[in-house]
Amino acid sequence: MDSLNLENPVVTPVPAEKPRAWGFWGTALWGLFIFAAMFAGQAAVIAWFVLRQDGPVDIAHTISVVGRGLTISLSVIMGLPTVLAALWLAIHFTRISFADYLALRWTSWRNVVLGVVGLAVIVFGWDLLSRATGREVTPGFMVDVLKSARTDGAVWLLVLAFCVAAPVSEELFARGFLYRGWSETFLRPAGAIALSSAVWTVVHLQYDWYFFGEIFSIGLWFGYIRHRTNSTWLTILMHGLNNLGAVVQTMWLAG
């Protein structure tokens, strides 16, 4: 028998280890790295605007420059390539393809309708609550940012930043990378949805606690849709539509 042939022994193939996503702590640490890359890309634009001003750096003038629509728009846009680079590096070590890791696949139009309708219900509900409690529907700083963008002739850049660059960066980070890694740990999908939504909420430091609640609830819906459809492209689309609606609403309120 061949199995007893010492000259030609049978070699049993060793099954290759299946590539796995980063675990809980790996996802958390790489998540910090990705967030730092996003911050670095945005901070570089802010630093350029601050340092190019004539004379010594003045705190009051620096604050006004940082809060301008043009500065914010360009900083958000420049955060996208640094996020993509950091994501590629983190995913490269897992030996899983970039698209598969981040669930960059399309889904059915039925799921699209479900996601958008659900998002509209959540946003409309928070708007009604804001009006009932006498709170502003749109954050005040958004109106100021829009007005300064109009002055600089950069409204189109603001729309590009808020409705394209920000949704892509944030969704690939939260619903793409964080959810993927945490959903395969003890957290399971439900815990991953909650934790990634909480991280995504904290990223929006410019809002107060009330808008934190709205953002977190929207994040939970995005996470559910990500889990249901296994499509991050859909959450990117929903995020972009949500931000577009917020920009249009701000334009209307600002006259």
Write the layout of secondary structure elements.
Layout: H1 24-51, H2 59-66, H3 69-92, H4 98-101, H5 109-132, H6 140-151, H7 155-183, H8 188-203, H9 209-229, H10 232-253
Helix pairs in contact: 1-3, 1-7, 3-7, 5-9, 5-10, 7-8, 7-10, 8-9, 9-10
Compute the number of structural domains: 1
Q: Indicate the overall shape.
A: globular
Mean pLDDT: 89
Tally of DSSP helical segments: 10
The structure class reads mainly alpha
Determine Rg (CA atoms, Å).
Answer: 22 Å
Main sheet overview: none
N-end to C-end Cα span = 89 Å
Strand content: under 5%
Order of helices and strands: HHHHHHHHHH
Return residue spans where pLDDT drops below 50 for at least 5 consecutive residues. none
Please give the number of β-strands: 0
Provide the helix percentage: over 70%
Describe what is shown at a glance.
With 255 residues, the chain is mostly helical.
Q: How does this model look, in words?
A:
- The model has no long low-confidence stretch (mean pLDDT 89).
- This protein has one domain (23-253).
- Helices cover 74% and strands 0% of the residues.
- The relative contact order is 0.14.
- The longest helix is centred in the middle third of the chain and has 29 residues, at 155-183.
- The protein has 255 residues and is mainly alpha-helical.
- The protein has helices spanning 24-51, 59-66, 69-92, 98-101, 109-132, 140-151, 155-183, 188-203, 209-229, 232-253.
